[in-house]
Amino acid sequence: MTIVITAFERSPDGGKGLARDTRVRWALEEVGLPYEVRLVSFEAKKEQPHLGLHPFGLIPTYEEGDLVLFESGAIVLHIAENHLGLLPEDPGARARAITWMFAALSTVEPPILEIVIVRFAEGDKPWSEERLELVKDRIRDRLAQLSDRLGDAEWLDGEFSAGDLMMVSVLLRSRPSGLLDEFPNLAAYAARGEARPAYRRAFAAQLAINAPDRVSD
């Protein structure tokens, strides 16, 4: 069955790999699964039939026969659990990898996303700059804890896993703020993720959609 995922027709980040469909593309590339992409405009994502795939009108979604999934973490977990390459065979290591997936999405990503809210939704408020500094401090706290845990290891728990895929994806969202570079071992960790051939293929595919000279259908 052909796998079909959705992505923005024009990504808000201009194809820099920060849109969540990149995570799904990366996972599919890691396990060697072919897939097709259905592009969705900002208008179409608020309407049927997209709302039938994602009740909150977001991307990405995942279709495989009668199976329809939404939420990037759930999609990556489904891919990892059903194909070799992203989860260890050992039950304990497998559980730890899944734990790191949840940690990336539930603990590390939320404060990072607050920067976007402060800058774009609250940027005209008189207190926005003060709040921005508070948000940055919360991100630093999380990154410091993660940095201590990673230490000089190559990956979070032995071999590369879906936990690393999700964590690297989240950390890359902090790079534009300059905060990631404050933690050299995390910056190097993220760079190792970016250097993986599967990530490079996923990034290139996402960037190609957003190329300035691309002609829209």
SSE order: EHEHEEHHHHHH
Shape summary: globular
Share of helical residues: 40-55%
Span between termini: 26 Å
Biggest β-sheet strands, sense, barrel: 4 strands, mixed
| Number of DSSP helical runs | 8
The radius of gyration over CA amounts to: 18 Å
- The CATH class designation of the largest domain is Mainly Alpha
Instruction: Output the structural class.
Output: alpha+beta
Strand content: 5-15%
Q: Can you count the beta strands?
A: 4
Counted up, domains total: 2
CATH topology of the largest domain: Glutathione S-transferase Yfyf (Class Pi), Chain A, domain 2
- Biggest sheet strand line-up: 2-1-3-4
Describe the structure.
The protein has 217 residues and is α+β, with helices and mostly antiparallel strands. It folds into two domains: 3-85 and 199-209, Glutaredoxin; 91-196, Glutathione S-transferase Yfyf (Class Pi), Chain A, domain 2, CATH 1.20.1050. The chain has eight helices and four strands; from the N terminus they run βαβαββαααααα. A four-stranded mixed β-sheet has the order 2-1-3-4, with helices on one face. The longest helix is centred in the middle third of the chain and has 31 residues, at 91-121. The protein is globular. The mean pLDDT is 92.
